[in-house]
Amino acid sequence: xxxxxxxxxxxxxxxxxxxxxxxxxxxxxxxxxxxxxxxxxxxxxxxxxxxxxxxxxxxxxxxxxxxxxxxxxxxxxxxxxxxxxxxxxxxxxxxxxxxxxxxxxxxxxxxxxxxxxxxxxxxxxxxxxxxxxxxxxxxxxxxxxxxxxxxxxxxxxxxxxxxxxxxxxxxxxxxxxxxxxxxxxxxxxxxxxxxxxxxxxxxxxxxxxxxxxxxxxxxxxxxxxxxxxxxxxxxxxxxxxxxxxxxx
Length: 248
Hints:
The chain is α/β, with parallel strands linked by helices. It folds into two domains: 6-93, Alpha-Beta Plaits (2-Layer Sandwich); 107-234, Oxidized Rhodanese, domain 1. The protein is built from eight helices and 13 strands. The chain has helices at 20-33, 55-69, 107-110, 117-124, 137-140, 159-165, 183-194, 206-214, and strands spanning 6-14, 37-43, 46-53, 75-81, 89-93, 113-115, 129-133, 143-145, 174-178, 200-203, 221-223, 225-226, 233-234. It has a five-stranded mixed beta sheet. A four-stranded parallel beta sheet has the order 6-10-9-7. A two-stranded antiparallel ribbon has the order 8-11. Strand 9, helix 7 (183-194) and strand 10 form a beta-alpha-beta unit. The protein starts with 5 loop residues before the first strand and ends in a 14-residue tail after the last strand.
């Protein structure tokens, strides 16, 4: 069996970045020199990226990004595949690292409480907990948790409108949220707390971390997990799911 040599590292942090123009060329230099691929988004609210390459080279770039931004709470997810799931290396400036379109939100200050993957099933078993899958409908359709509510959004920017139209769902409830790698549910919990909801929680590291850490012991997760690269979806072994890989 062929060894999996390509590391795929996804990472994000909500941290104020005041000097993106200086940061970009430093990261580009490392990425190009180390033949990395993928995309990094830089915004005033933080950074969000997925890159592939030799693990030591990808780790070097992420470490340098963390050092240059003084980020403390950084979510990093690593898995491996046989070939690059990205075509080029790019860095982009964005207004938001994940677009909610609800104005400025201090995510670092307001984000909900983390639930560790190992405690997720037990937390969801509480009668006063509702689970909202904050991903888009096409992602939820190929895999989600047992009791998850699907907002049927086409983009994350539709989420605030869905919340406004479904306030009745949250009355007297603990609100749990999940997403692929943690970034959307982290921002959506901050948004909910900004609206005045206090008991808001999210799956630490997202669905991918849950699958890796727990191997889905109680069968609460069903299907495959959509990812935003050429693999398109991964199975419960975090391997590219059959029939989804994008051929170029």
